[in-house]
Amino acid sequence: EVQLVESGGGLVKPGGSLRLSCAASGFGFSYSGMHWVRQAPGKGLEWVASISSTSSYISYADSLKGRFTISRDNAKNSLYLQMDDLRAEDTALYYCTAPQGGSYYDPFDYWGQGTLVTVSS
Amino acid sequence: EVVLTQSPDTLSLSPGERATLSCRASQSLTNSYLAWYQQKPGQAPRLLIFGVSKRATGIPDRFSGSGSGTDFTLTISRLEPEDFAVYYCQQYGGSGTFGHGTKVDMK
């Protein structure tokens, strides 16, 4: 059974940093592209960042470039999102997602339950 | 970056009726990397359709996708009670821009 378990969310002050983690199991993580998607309270889905299996290809939403960094550790079956200079508008539930087909270019079949990030003073 | 515009914002229908949801892209999606997701309250999204018209694993055949270029449609042929939810279109393929969603609620 595929499992994606996010962690690392919490309350942080504006300008602060957080590192989110996603522990993956039940599929070939080291061969799979991975993605982060977020959802502000009561709002729609927003794609955040994507990373290919070997980290050769990385992409970010234009609005986030320079503040967020996606990375992975295939030996630990883990995906990460380093978030710096956090703003109130970054408050959201952050989902880790993966494609069933494994390609960085495939749609997002598997989803975790999300970890909540709240940016507030 | 491609912008996806969904319409309508809300669709009020009864069980058994047909639902037609629209997604328009700001530029042509020549690679057909267009997907649809369903999200219910308190749940993670679920992939319904990918590659414009291919159903994901386990998705009932009352869900169908169509379109090309900049105009795409998700059709639910006969609404079941469990289909009342929010639906998002997405352009994927190395990125993942979403539309703002269409809520299908019960009349």
Describe the structure.
The complex is a heterodimer of chains A (121) and B (107). Chain A is mainly beta. Chain A has strands at residues 3-7, 10-12, 18-25, 34-39, 45-51, 58-60, 68-73, 78-83, 92-98, 110-111, 115-119. In chain A, the strands form two sheets. In chain A, strands 2, 4, 5, 6, 9, 10 and 11 form a seven-stranded mixed sheet that branches. The N and C termini of chain A lie far apart (40 Å). The mean pLDDT of chain A is 96. Chain B has 107 residues and is mostly beta strands. Chain B has strands at 4-7, 10-13, 19-25, 34-39, 46-50, 54-55, 63-68, 71-76, 86-91, 102-106. In chain B, strands 2-10-9-4-5-6 form a six-stranded mixed sheet, with no helix packed on it. In chain B, strand 7 and strand 8 form a beta hairpin. Chain B is globular. Classes of the chains: A mainly beta (121), B mainly beta (107). The A-B interface holds A 35, 37, 44-47, 50, 57, 59, 61-62, 95, 100, 104-109, 111-114 and B 1, 33, 35, 37, 39, 44-47, 50-51, 56-57, 86, 88, 90, 92-101.
Kindly summarize this structure in a few lines:
Chain A is built from no helices and 11 strands. Chain A has strands at residues 3-7, 10-12, 18-25, 34-39, 45-51, 58-60, 68-73, 78-83, 92-98, 110-111, 115-119.
Largest sheet of chain A: 7 strands, mixed
Percentage of residues assigned to helices of chain B: under 10%
Pattern of helices and strands of chain A: EEEEEEEEEEE
Find the structural class of chain B using helix and strand composition.
mainly beta
What does the oligomeric state look like here? heterodimer
Overall 3D form of chain A: globular
The number of distinct helices of chain B, counting runs of at least 4 residues, comes to: 0
Straight-line N-to-C gap of chain B: 36 Å
Strand content of chain A: over 45%
* Strand line-up across the major sheet of chain B: 2-10-9-4-5-6
The arrangement of helices and strands of chain B along the chain is: EEEEEEEEEE
Uncertain regions spanning at least 5 consecutive residues of chain A:
none
Average pLDDT level of chain A = 96
The major sheet of chain B is characterized as:
6 strands, mixed
Broad shape of chain B: globular
Beta-strand residue fraction of chain B? over 45%
Mean pLDDT of chain B: 96
**How many β strands of chain A by DSSP?**
11
Radius of gyration of chain A (CA) equals: 13 Å
